[in-house]
Each structure stands twice: as C-alpha cells, then as structure tokens.
Amino acid sequence: MKFHEKIAVQLYSVRKEMEANLEETLRLLSELGIKNVQLDGMRGNPPLEVARLLKKYDLNVVGMHIKHDRFFNDLDGIIEEAYLFDCKTIYDKYIEEEDQNEVGYRKTKRALLEVAYKLSPLGFRVGLHNPEYDFKTEIDGRMMMDFVTDPENGISIYAEPDTYWISASDIDPVEYIKRYSGRAPIIHMKDYIPGFDLTDMDNNLTEIGSGTVDFKSVIEWGEQNGVEYYCIEQDRSKLDMFESLKISIAALKNIQI
Predict the structure, then answer these.
(1) CB distance 6 to 230 below 8 Å
(2) Is 94 helix (H, G, I), strand (E, B) or coil?
(3) Mean pLDDT, the chain, as a whole number?
(4) Which UniProt keywords apply (predicted)?
(5) Per residue, what are the HEC states of 20-52?
(6) DSSP state, 152?
(7) How far is CA 147 from the centre of its chain?
(8) End-to-end CA separation in angstroms for the chain
(9) CATH code of domain 3-253
C-alpha cells in the first residue's frame, strides 16, 4: 500500500460538524477522498447510526480513541464498540488531569496492561495517545510516555505519537518516533508554529505544510518501521474545517517518497 492510501482523519477534527449533521459531515469527508478515519466518540449520535453512515460513505475505522476512565470501568462497552466498528486498535485518548502524576501514570500503565493481557489474544492492540504533558514527568528515569509503553512480559502498550504535541514539548518528532519501530501503527500528523504560548492553539497549531514539522522524514521513517496510517488531527482552525483538512490532505499527498 502506498503511503497516500494510508492517510486518515481523526474525527475529533469534525466533532462540532458531527454534532450538527452527522451524515453531511461524513459525506463531505468522503468527497475529500478520505477512506480511513479514527473515531473519537459518537458526538451525540446513536452508535448504530454512526456505523451505518460510515459504511454508506465507505469510511474505514482504523483506530478508536477511548476516554481514559473507560479503560478502568467499561471494558465490555469498549469491546462492544470495537466489534460494531470492526476496529481492534484502541487508544486511551489522554490521561485525565487527576491522573497526571506519578501515582496516576503507574495506575494507568497497570490498567492498560490488564486490558492488553485480556484483549491481545482476541487481536486487539491497546495504545496511548500523547499530549504535551506526557513529556514533562519522568518515572523510573523514563519519560512518562516511554514508561507506559515499555513492554512488560511480552505485552506492549502501543504508542500514538502526535507530531504537534512532541514539537510543542521542544522535542524533534522525527527523532522521538524512532524509539517506536513496530510499535506505532498510527501517527497523528499535526503541524506546529513555534513562538506562541503553548495554550495558544489558534496560532501555534496550523495546517500541514504551514509549520515546522518535517513530515517527509516522518513518513520516510514510518514506511520502513510499520506505520499503518498517517492520521490528520486538526483540533481547531481559523479556516472552515473541511477547507483546513483539504489543505492538509493535499500537502501530504504532494510529498514524494
């Protein structure tokens, strides 16, 4: 499969649009040439209707973001959703604020490993998506993201590196992802403009090709190291979201590998 066919869109990008008109949102994504999406909740829509419309518009669910607390108390619900959407690659979307400390990170690793022990025999992959704060804490001499994803007893928590949040942490995303050869089936592709406050996402988050992230090098590495999908996630934009996604999709497709 050529890397152009591995481009995906995280539906968090169009969360407001999904709340307003689910079918129109999925239709417009399909018209952008998108075949692969990553789920991030139903956005007020019945799961069966989301599944029906995804199928109608030939959108393949390649990953699912799951709320942090569900890994502790709703494993049955996670499994049910995974089978409904025919997707066994599931990520803890972000660690809730109350668990953003050493005790919480250790608890999170245990919970994710327990889920992985139970579900790996069924073909599931359990992973963690990284926001910026995950790079600010060390546990046992390891950055938190590395600590949680370090293999244990032959089971690995998969990483979902996010080029924006890695860049916002003053870390080179191309160098950082190299530690995850074979352990990062999805990479979040988000561009970054330095020089703004970390919380100023209106200015420091931008469309792919407008910032400083070296996406060509990310993809070159990914094609040699098991990356299955390059997932655009545009948390917000000054543009209409579909125009924003159109720009980012075109920028990725224009990369020559």
Answers:
(1) yes
(2) coil
(3) 95
(4) Endonuclease, Hydrolase, Nuclease
(5) HCHHHHHHHHHHCCCCEEEECCCCCCCHHHHHH
(6) B
(7) 19
(8) 13
(9) 3.20.20.150
Q: What angle do the packed helices 22-31 and 241-253 form, to 10 degrees?
A: 30
Name the phi and psi angles at 3, rounded to 5: -65, -25
Top mean pLDDT of 105-114, 146-155, 195-204 is at: 105-114
Alpha-helical runs (H) found in the chain: 15-20, 22-31, 47-56, 70-73, 75-84, 102-119, 144-149, 163-168, 173-176, 201-204, 215-224, 241-253
| H or E stretch covering 214 | none
Span 16-26, average pLDDT = 98
**Is 48's pLDDT higher than 90?**
yes
Q: Which pLDDT value is given to residue 198?
A: 84
As beta bridge partners, residue 205 has 192
Task: Read off the tokens for 54.
Answer: 């995804």
In the chain, what are the domain boundaries? 3-253
- Rounded to two decimals, the pTM is 0.96
> How many angstroms separate the CA atoms of 23 and 1, rounded?
28
Sheet arrangement for strand 60-66: 158-160, 125-129, 89-92, 60-66, 36-39, 7-10, 229-232, 186-189
Q: Which H/E stretch holds residue 179?
A: none
